[in-house]
Amino acid sequence: MKRIMVALATLLFFGFIFSSGIVAAEEKSKQYIGLHDRVLKFGQDEIQMVDGKSFVPLTKLMDSLYATTVYDDKIYMGKNNRVLIYDYLTGKTTADDVESEETPIRDINGELFADVSYIATSFGFYFEYFSELNVSRIYSDVYRSLRGSDYKKHMDVLLGNVTPPTKPVPVPPTVPQPEKPSTGEGKANVYLTFDDGPNLFTTKNLATLKKYDVESTFFFLGKQMNLFSEIVENVAGEGHYIGSHSMTHDKDKVYASSGSFISEMSSGALLIKKLTGVQDVPKLMRVPYGSKPHLTPGMKGELKKEGYKVWDWDVDSNDWRYSDKQYSEIIKNVQNGVTGAYKSGDRDIVVLLHDRSQTAIALPQIIEWLTKEGYTMKKYNPESHVVQNFHRDAEL
Ligand SMILES: [Zn+2]
After folding, report:
1. Domain ranges, ordered by start, for the chain
2. What spacing in Å lies between the alpha carbon of 10 and ligand 1's midpoint?
């Protein structure tokens, strides 16, 4: 009996050491979140493994997926025509009216974290965990992405597990080559865009843009233009591009039907022409709340019929979330977003900002940083249209 007890105790003891050793190793291994063929920017403290599932901060995940998120008495999250609802009171999450039995969204140290696999599959993406890479990958058929061993090879290089084969050093030409003239172009184009004006902060942003000699793009609301027509004239007068952002910005009105949609959007464009005296009706628009999931095939058809184009964005500054005092968060979001977009190969980076107080405070430092990093700030140019919409529709 005594011998059995000792054996049992020994087993338990070693079992404990052994299992705790495994836990420690598991905790130490670096985790990654992948979207299609990219690696999303999450710090190691932002990826929490719970029961073998990766959880990341909810807000950041929604932004990375370009999901539409509304924070109200509950959190409403929309993507690919699917809706997720998180109830603060019960802590329950519902996907398309089906309540999850688990807790895919949960409070971890005072911040809401979301189960990456649950969110991905609820939004109609595929999810796969690559244990040899420690990558939780979200992907879909819509976006052309690598599969199987090609993906593994690609990720090994991306994560620095292996160094890519170096190209043979080219033999220098015997005839001396004339030095390439500098084109004066930066490493990538950055398009600063300002939504929801004109208002008094438009004037502040306008002054900052003038000070730094930067041209940008404004998406104005009809109801605001009727109040501040002088600001519309000033913005156009300083050479910036103005596009329509609808008349009312009211989700229920704008997206009620294809008819209401095109009327809301084109009335704004016609008003811009009227107020600025610009020859053509501005063709570039930004639809309220982003083109996904709101834009239906019928609405897209209406836009194309009129030759309109739609810009969403590559980088969301999330400026509306912050107070004046928190303006440095906006700068950080732009820096991280632009750096990430540039590293993923994007050379035309569209940044979403708003005509708001906190944004006006952050803008000078945003421009200074972009200049220092070698980016070229430009306004939208209809002569060389850049496709930037969440539907990846080349005709928009
Ligand atoms: Zn807006």
Report:
1. 32-158, 189-384
2. 65
Strand partners of residue 106: 113
0.85 surpassed by pTM? no
pLDDT at 145: 66
Measured in angstroms, how far is the CA atom of residue 245 from the centroid of ligand 1? Answer: 7
Cα–Cα distance measured from residue 253 to residue 268, given in angstroms and rounded to the nearest whole number: 14
Per-residue pLDDT tens for 170-219? 544 444 444 333 344 578 999 999 999 999 999 999 999 999 999 999 99
Distance 197 CA to ligand 1 centre (A): 9
CATH class assigned to 189-384: alpha beta
As a CATH number, domain 32-158 is 3.30.457.10
Q: Give the pLDDT confidence of 25-60 residue by residue, as tens digits.
A: 344 688 999 988 888 888 888 999 988 899 999 999
Just list the catalytic residues.
Answer: 195, 354
Residues with CB under 5 A from ligand 1 (ion): 195-196, 288
Say which DSSP state 384 is in. Answer: G
